[in-house]
């Protein structure tokens, strides 16, 4: 039942969540309203208590290097199953790797809610308000966070991140030697998905189907009729760019006999591809082709003099891409 796999789902969401707050700045102005300084607020992963404890333990306020405020921290706090988003367990999806060489299968992911806390620590309330005001307008109450999952499968999903609550705490007490820290805590819920193991199904592609029909009289030792029908996928467009000749005339929507520069390059009883239209070549007479237009649900089009005539061959059959439409080559024996 259990096997090793690691899709880095939680890691991807944690990194993406943190990246939302990477470029927050605050500005300090003088009495005339001129900007005196611009501070990019640093962001780190970890619990708020860790940073507060470190700050409080630095009692010497005259040290040349101290832990500075403002700053922000975030952490992943809890994980809960979300039954309201449950999908059918037997449904799966298939993706093709970017190089087109493999097909990967994965069952629909399991919905889980991830809890996050974002802590904003400042010395003065004005700084905290500047930071909070740059965050809140994007959460109404959720923000869609695009995340790529499953490595080379590039499964991209929008993860809603919902702002649940905001609390404020001021831990300043006592004398003037104590450093003050205002802490705003924003709590979020990310509606995430957890993916299971990935299966390589490249070898499971059906490339040939054979159906046998046997007819006879019940009780007869031999069949009165035996027929076998075999089909293989056939490309409905050119994949390898094999140009065999050019059109020698303009072709309108009604023509079934067309002229080409060199009819010897085209074989009868094969398919050709011009523009976005597939045609079947019934016969070749000199440089004239008798064709059947708009094959395999392609659209009949006008074509201009000099347009490329491409041949659809068995080489194209081997290059059919996942998700493309295709036809069938059938034989009976």
Question: What key attributes describe this structure?
Answer:
single chain; 2 domains; 6-stranded mixed beta sheet; 20 strands; elongated
If you had to describe this structure to a student in words, what would you say it looks like?
The chain is elongated and about 95 Å long. The chain folds into two domains: 9-200, STM4215-like (2-Layer Sandwich); 209-332, no CATH class. The protein has a six-stranded mixed sheet. It contains four helices and 20 strands. A hairpin with a 2-residue loop joins strand 16 and strand 17 (277-285). 11% of the residues lie in helices and 42% in strands. It is mainly beta.
Write a brief caption for the model.
The protein contains 4 helices and 20 strands.
Number of helices: 4
Overall mean pLDDT stands at 81
**Shape, per Cα inertia axes:** elongated
Second rung of CATH, namely the architecture of the largest domain: 2-Layer Sandwich
Strand content: 35-45%
The low-confidence parts are: 60-66
The description of the largest β-sheet is:
6 strands, mixed
Oligomer: single chain
Determine the CATH superfamily of the largest domain.
Myoviridae tail sheath stabiliser
Q: Would you count the extended β strands for me?
A: 20
Within the CATH hierarchy, at the fold level, what is the topology of the largest domain?
STM4215-like
Helical coverage, percent range: 10-25%
Number of spatially distinct domains: 2
Question: Which structural category fits the helices and strands?
Answer: mainly beta
- How far apart, in Å, are the first and last alpha carbons? 45 Å
Order of helices and strands: HEEEHEEEEHEEEEEEEEEEEEHE
Query: What's the level 1 CATH class of the largest domain?
Result: Alpha Beta
Main-sheet strand order equals 3-4-7-10-9-8
**Using only CA atoms, what is the Rg?**
34 Å
């Amino acid at each position: 039942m259990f096997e090793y796999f690691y899709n880095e789902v939680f890691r991807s969401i944690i990194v993406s969540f943190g990246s939302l707050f990477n470029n927050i700045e605050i500005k300090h102005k003088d009495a005339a309203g001129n900007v005196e300084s611009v501070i990019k607020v640093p962001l780190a992963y970890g619990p708020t208590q860790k940073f507060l404890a470190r700050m409080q333990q630095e009692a010497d306020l005259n040290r040349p290097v101290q832990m500075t405020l403002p700053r922000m921290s975030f952490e992943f706090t809890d994980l809960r199953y979300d039954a309201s988003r449950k999908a059918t367990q037997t449904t799966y999806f298939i993706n093709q790797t970017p190089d087109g060489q493999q097909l990967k299968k994965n069952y629909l992911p399991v919905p889980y809610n991830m809890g996050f806390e974002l802590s904003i620590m400042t010395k003065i309330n004005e700084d905290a308000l500047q930071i909070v005001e740059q965050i809140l307008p994007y959460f109404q109450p959720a923000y869609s966070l695009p995340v790529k999952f499953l490595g080379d499968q590039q499964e991209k999903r929008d993860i809603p991140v919902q702002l649940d609550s905001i609390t404020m705490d001021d831990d300043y007490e006592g004398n003037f030697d104590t450093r003050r820290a205002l802490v705003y805590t924003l709590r979020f819920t990310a509606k995430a998905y957890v993916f299971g193991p990935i299966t390589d199904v490249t070898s499971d592609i059906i490339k040939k189907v054979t159906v046998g029909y046997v007819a006879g009289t019940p009780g007869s030792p031999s069949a009165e009729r035996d027929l076998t029908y075999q089909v293989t996928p056939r490309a409905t467009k050119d994949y390898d760019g094999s140009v065999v000749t050019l059109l020698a005339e303009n072709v309108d929507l009604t023509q079934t006999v067309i002229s080409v520069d060199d009819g010897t390059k085209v074989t009868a009883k094969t398919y050709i591809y011009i523009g976005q239209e597939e045609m079947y070549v019934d016969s070749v007479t000199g440089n004239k082709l008798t064709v059947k237009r708009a094959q395999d649900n392609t659209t009949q089009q006008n074509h201009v003099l000099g347009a490329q005539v491409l041949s659809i061959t068995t080489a194209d059959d081997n290059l059919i891409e996942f998700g493309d439409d295709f036809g069938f080559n059938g034989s009976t024996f």
